Amino acid sequence: MTNSEIRYVRSLKDKKTRAEAGEFVVESEKLVLEAIASSFEVRLICYCGDNVDRRIVSHPAAQTVDPKTMERISLLASPSPALAVVGMPAAATAGDIATLAADPDALCLALDGVRDPGNLGTIVRIADWFGIDAVLASPDTVELFNPKTIQSTMGSIFRKKVIYCDLTEAARAFSAAGAAVYGTFLDGENIYGQKLERHALVVMGSESFGIRDYLSGSVTKRLFIPPYPAGGTGCESLNVSAATAVVCSEFRRNY
Amino acid sequence: MTNSEIRYVRSLKDKKTRAEAGEFVVESEKLVLEAIASSFEVRLICYCGDNVDRRIVSHPAAQTVDPKTMERISLLASPSPALAVVGMPAAATAGDIATLAADPDALCLALDGVRDPGNLGTIVRIADWFGIDAVLASPDTVELFNPKTIQSTMGSIFRKKVIYCDLTEAARAFSAAGAAVYGTFLDGENIYGQKLERHALVVMGSESFGIRDYLSGSVTKRLFIPPYPAGGTGCESLNVSAATAVVCSEFRRNY
């Protein structure tokens, strides 16, 4: 690798550079393999050592680098044996959201301002496990291509559509298509007692603010995951990714 | 604060120093308030600025520090207005575990080698929300007093008992007391179809290894959170904290 190539890969640790280049970095053999197996365009692979999976080594965009170079380009405290530069998929359009909303089998999540990269990545992985059709996210939700987010998805980023969009418009599209719009609130109804619709958008609030006022009016059914025992134990809330796991499980357990 | 006091607080960022001193650090007004309200011994509070909650300012162990000092003692990238040094609770004994196991209402978690501090903290918070009686942890589970773990608990560390112990012995104690010993495995039975016992120990595996061989034989009922659709989508697993949230919800939803 030339020094200028090394500098370019390193520069992708910045959100602004990633957005301008339309490329992001994934690290670890597992994630590079997931990238290769996906519909994403893998533009460069750097690997290091003799024990790297041959699907990585034989990729047309692969080149071997020495450990010092890997240390320079890696964002990890302990660099892994493989790193890839991957092209971002095309942004979704309003038409894509309308198409999703119109599908009577579509169950989507909407994240209102989730800020923690690990939470976003974990939520994308949860959405993948539970076959959620897409994850919508307000424009101020943390960036999907943040390295911590990508690592937390454990590869689900390559399978699960995440669409940044205006959530009030998305909620309107789902409502217009006859879908329910759920949201979790501390004063919502016990989720365990509800008949949960299959065709739905489920809004999850952010770590600090929950579902904000601008959006709460778009929610037609307010849900709550009750603590145990019923009065609670002093714990104020569940982490948003833990709550998302419970909610997705509840929506899927009867199908 | 003297320089030697500042050095001491800073030294508590190291696990070994924490263990020797029997003290740990919590940061943020919320966590310091939770510490004050708990049964833990708050040995020192440092706060900074004029808008700090008066329950902090009026605490006998509280002292005001200037922003420069707060920056020096804080482990956070952006220091919060309050920090406390808190004494660790006494370690649990085998007798404590036997007492827990003998309680016919006790539902406990057992973590087999969870390595990520954020996962451990999130699991303690989940255990708090769902009224889990205690969280047992194998000796190689990440340390509870790691600053990232503490921040992730959002205060649940002050309410929820976490006991590091030999999990095969703990499983034996629960079995001997007539409790079920559950565990999650990729080849377990669909959790949604099970009658889940109220008196139980539920083993959760680590991020990389799941429930290890030394312990899997102690599990009497193997559970699985099914993906949707049934065959899965390529996603290999749920994050351990997400899985713990779903499992706790399933155990509590019918009570």
Describe the 3D structure.
- 2 copies of one chain form a homodimer.
- By secondary structure, chain A is an alpha/beta fold.
- Chain A has 2 domains: 3-87, Ribosomal protein L30/S12 (60s Ribosomal Protein L30, Chain: A), CATH 3.30.1330; 94-252, SPOUT methyltransferase, trefoil knot domain (Alpha/beta knot).
- Chain A is built from 11 helices and 10 strands.
- A 6-stranded parallel sheet of chain A has the order 7-6-5-9-8-10, with helices on both faces. In chain A, strands 1-4-2-3 form a 4-stranded mixed sheet.
- The interface between A and B is large, with 38 and 37 residues.
Kindly report the greatest chain-chain contact and the residue count on each side: A-B, 38 and 37 residues
- Superfamily at the CATH H level of the largest domain in chain A? SPOUT methyltransferase, trefoil knot domain
> How large is the share of residues in beta strands of chain A?
15-25%
**CATH C-level name of the largest domain in chain A:** Alpha Beta
Give me the CATH fold name of the largest domain in chain A.
Alpha/beta knot
Q: What is the number of strand segments of chain A?
A: 10
Helix content class of chain A: 25-40%
Q: What's the helix count of chain A?
A: 11
Order of helices and strands of chain A: HHEHEHEHEHEHEHEHEEHEH
* Helix vs. strand class of chain A: alpha/beta
